[in-house]
Amino acid sequence: MAESRTRPLTIAGRLLAGTVSAAVLGASGFTWYEYRQLDGGMVKSAALTEARKNAPPHLDKSVNLLLIGLDSRKDMDGNDLPKEFVEEELHAGSSEIGGYNTNALIVLHIPADGGKVTALSVPRDDYVQTVGADGRMHKVKEAYGIAKEAAEQKLGGKGLSKAELERQSREAGRAATIQTVQALLGIPVDHFAEVNLIGFYDIAKAVEPIQVCLNNPVDDPIVARTANHEGGGTGLRLPAGVSSLDARQALSFVRQRHHLKNGDLDRTHRQQAFISSVVYKLKQQGVVNDLGQLQRLFDAVKKDVVIDDRWNVLDFAQQAPNLTGGNVEFNTLPITGFKTIGGQEVNTVDPDQIKRIVKQLFGHEAPPPATTDASAPAPATASSPVEAPTATPSRARAVVDVHGANAEAAAAESGALAELGFPAGRATGTAAAGRAKATTVAYGAGTKADAERLAARYGVTATASSAVPSGHVVVTLAPTTPSVPAPPVPAPSEPTAEPTAEPTTELPMQGPAVKAGGIPCVD
């Protein structure tokens, strides 16, 4: 059932959260008739009742909406989706591998004053403390499946029908997901929307074609699953620039994770960009004025989307016009690195940092001063002018030498680091690297901050070395180092003689923000 109970890296089907559904619900000013027609036929959930028992307190009258993308090849009654549809039409892997992972989690924060809506994505592989599941550390996406499986076992002897067992056990999964997100972010969830694989496809089908924009061309060939390979790939081939997608291509666009520089993290930005494009079309291209297309959209939402039973759709449509006015910014919460735990590759996170970021971003806490260094220069006065602080440099300062098992591997990694802003040094193949059991990062004088950023990329600890020249960092790649090991590395502040707290006026996020109001370009 849960991915941790099967093979954690074999689930190929990934999907968008219920964000498109939320966009639909807030895309226009509903008439009373349209509202009654839509609201009366939607699937409602009581999961918030349980989740609110452990919710953090509200700090104002803002609204937090959690959008859940459920990776399931089953319908609402627990029946398998048609194999030919899942495997042949969607290229989403075998119907048998299913699972109940929440592979997309997005929080929309709607301010009490109706200002800019902030959207935060939680990377699905973040390794966190679950709440309402088994209380242990898991990937955040697994809370749903773990709680659902436990509920099934508890309810199994009560003589429930298959459909009712599915309904009640999914309620447990939803409650656990909501509670886990609340605990991680330190905020209450007021409403939620959930959509599964078929739901995303149906909604995309109702609004196709949808335009998206890529910074680079993509070619993600399908690789068949074998005894020695988990398979994967979406079959998506698109040029750089703007493309128009049908529903099947849209699903591939938001599912692709192979052949992306930052893997799942880049896919999160794809999801955000796709949402922006759909909302843009709904608002700007007349979809909401096409009664036939709007009806198809309503039919898809009623059939495939689950919302909480406290959510008044009409109130939401009137409350959140900024969702469709381009006044939304999507950010991805940061990770601190990568690690393998229990055979699973996970994202490590700093929960305290995440809570601070969320509070500051949602306006509940003032950001820290630009510097915390007690020895920092005093503010300028008439008798002691100082230069205005400069922006954080856009590139790293350390020169990075890369040693690999062969020259080709070293050159490839050196090029990847150069793209992240690290000036390329020597890239050589060495026998020592070929024998290395783990990647190492060694640094010379003046490069500790850069070395630590690089070490986080590989999940190791940087060490000082007198053998490394001043101003240089040496990365020795183990032969098993992944070809796409990490997300972009933040640029450091200017090096100083003594270690100091790094000044910052911006919140650390995982990659650039995706801004709505058009068709944003992403990787």
Can you walk me through this structure?
The protein has 15 helices and 22 strands. Helix content is 32%, strand content 19%. The chain has two domains: 3-362 and 512-518, Aminopeptidase, CATH 3.40.630; 399-476, Alpha-Beta Plaits. Mean pLDDT is 74; it is low at 1-32, 369-396 and 482-505. It has helices spanning 19-25, 32-40, 47-51, 83-89, 143-155, 162-185, 197-207, 247-255, 263-284, 291-304, 313-319, 351-361, 407-419, 431-435, 448-458; strands at residues 43-45, 63-71, 101-110, 117-121, 127-129, 137-139, 191-195, 210-214, 218-220, 236-238, 241-245, 305-308, 328-332, 337-341, 344-348, 399-404, 424-429, 440-443, 462-464, 472-476, 514-515, 521-522. With 523 residues, the protein is of the alpha/beta class. Helix 1 (19-25) runs parallel beside helix 9, helix 7 packs across helix 8 and helix 7 (197-207) packs antiparallel against helix 10 (291-304). Strands 1-12-7-2-3-4-13-21 form an eight-stranded mixed β-sheet, sandwiched between helices. The chain has a five-stranded mixed β-sheet with strand order 17-16-20-18-19. It has a three-stranded mixed β-sheet with strand order 11-8-22.
Write down the Rg. Answer: 24 Å
Q: Within the largest sheet, what's the order of strands?
A: 1-12-7-2-3-4-13-21
Low-confidence stretches: 1-32, 369-396, 482-505
CATH-defined fold name of the largest domain? Aminopeptidase
- Structural classification: alpha/beta
Specify the helix fraction band.
25-40%
The CATH first-level class of the largest domain comes to Alpha Beta
Q: What is the number of domains?
A: 2
Largest sheet: 8 strands, mixed
Number of helices: 15
Query: Terminal Cα separation, in Å?
Result: 32 Å
Q: Roughly what fraction of the amino acids lie in strands?
A: 15-25%
* The named CATH superfamily of the largest domain: LCP protein
Oligomer: single chain
The tally of strands reads 22
Shape: globular
The CATH architecture of the largest domain can be given as 3-Layer(aba) Sandwich
What would the average pLDDT be, to the nearest integer?
74
